[in-house]
């Protein structure tokens, strides 16, 4: 692969800046320049659309307005606020990194991308975003939007999932931000990828870059970017036991290192090892001889979960697989971090089981 000429990449950068100026995208974190707020926004936006992430960002900053408030909070408080966003390791890493920066670094974030990348949960993209937006470092960001836009505009036909292609694109955008302010360019290319040069059916007819876009000229827009292979999601079957007594629901805090770590779940049925054993096995679990309350299919990035919920009239003795059983008052369930599918199931069955009501005493 040969890098484009400097004149070509500068023209590309200026074109995006002009588009960015004419097409503002309101985002609440754009009004902040401190590394803490930018860090929170960037972590929330990982694997999350801006429209979905905005209310979470606003609630998070309201609850944890600065590094100290996050560092001194409990992980349970953080997970409750994160509920529904998924990828809960992001929340755990946020909390751990906040504590480290507050306690070990005197509350000061590193001021370079290289230094930021040493912190847990901060990779090349996030470190570049914080360094450019908060400190003005001349470094380009590379995410899915950036790879798509550059692949099409410069006709990069190589696999964007390869480290070689990623480095090529990183070098390309780094050259651009030597000529153009990094914060403005980085925001411009990300917005352009999210609003104009979208994955499917981009609006090429009204795109200001079409006259110089190589993919458009070669009629290859739908073919780029190129990705090799497709991730096959593993199927997993999980049986949950739902025990309700006097308006209280049996829950355990999942200590498994798999999905939903530290979140509160129904105890699982049919395994002495708890949730972890279901996630390790690809075999469909045997249905217990219990009343079935409902079924639900739920997709994660790497798994297809087939969830089944059974009503039990008393807690089995082997239920404390990965945590101590807690009988939670229905009115207090909102204060616990519960995986999204289990929360939806609780909401669905709450009236039938009288979960929302305590005994009339």
TrEMBL record:
<dbReference type="InterPro" id="IPR015797">
    <property type="entry name" value="NUDIX_hydrolase-like_dom_sf"/>
</dbReference>
<dbReference type="InterPro" id="IPR044298">
    <property type="entry name" value="MIG/MutY"/>
</dbReference>
<dbReference type="InterPro" id="IPR005760">
    <property type="entry name" value="A/G_AdeGlyc_MutY"/>
</dbReference>
<dbReference type="GO" id="GO:0032357">
    <property type="term" value="F:oxidized purine DNA binding"/>
</dbReference>
<dbReference type="GO" id="GO:0046872">
    <property type="term" value="F:metal ion binding"/>
</dbReference>
<keyword id="KW-0234">DNA repair</keyword>
<keyword id="KW-0411">Iron-sulfur</keyword>
<keyword id="KW-0227">DNA damage</keyword>
<dbReference type="Pfam" id="PF00730">
    <property type="entry name" value="HhH-GPD"/>
</dbReference>
<dbReference type="InterPro" id="IPR003265">
    <property type="entry name" value="HhH-GPD_domain"/>
</dbReference>
<dbReference type="GO" id="GO:0034039">
    <property type="term" value="F:8-oxo-7,8-dihydroguanine DNA N-glycosylase activity"/>
</dbReference>
<dbReference type="InterPro" id="IPR023170">
    <property type="entry name" value="HhH_base_excis_C"/>
</dbReference>
<dbReference type="GO" id="GO:0006298">
    <property type="term" value="P:mismatch repair"/>
</dbReference>
<protein>
    <recommendedName>
        <fullName>Adenine DNA glycosylase</fullName>
        <ecNumber>3.2.2.31</ecNumber>
    </recommendedName>
</protein>
<dbReference type="GO" id="GO:0006284">
    <property type="term" value="P:base-excision repair"/>
</dbReference>
<keyword id="KW-0479">Metal-binding</keyword>
<feature type="domain" description="HhH-GPD">
    <location>
        <begin position="44"/>
        <end position="195"/>
    </location>
</feature>
<comment type="function">
    <text>Adenine glycosylase active on G-A mispairs. MutY also corrects error-prone DNA synthesis past GO lesions which are due to the oxidatively damaged form of guanine: 7,8-dihydro-8-oxoguanine (8-oxo-dGTP).</text>
</comment>
<dbReference type="InterPro" id="IPR011257">
    <property type="entry name" value="DNA_glycosylase"/>
</dbReference>
<dbReference type="GO" id="GO:0000701">
    <property type="term" value="F:purine-specific mismatch base pair DNA N-glycosylase activity"/>
</dbReference>
<keyword id="KW-0004">4Fe-4S</keyword>
<keyword id="KW-0326">Glycosidase</keyword>
<dbReference type="InterPro" id="IPR029119">
    <property type="entry name" value="MutY_C"/>
</dbReference>
<keyword id="KW-0408">Iron</keyword>
<keyword id="KW-0378">Hydrolase</keyword>
<dbReference type="GO" id="GO:0035485">
    <property type="term" value="F:adenine/guanine mispair binding"/>
</dbReference>
<dbReference type="GO" id="GO:0051539">
    <property type="term" value="F:4 iron, 4 sulfur cluster binding"/>
</dbReference>
<dbReference type="Pfam" id="PF14815">
    <property type="entry name" value="NUDIX_4"/>
</dbReference>
<comment type="similarity">
    <text>Belongs to the Nth/MutY family.</text>
</comment>
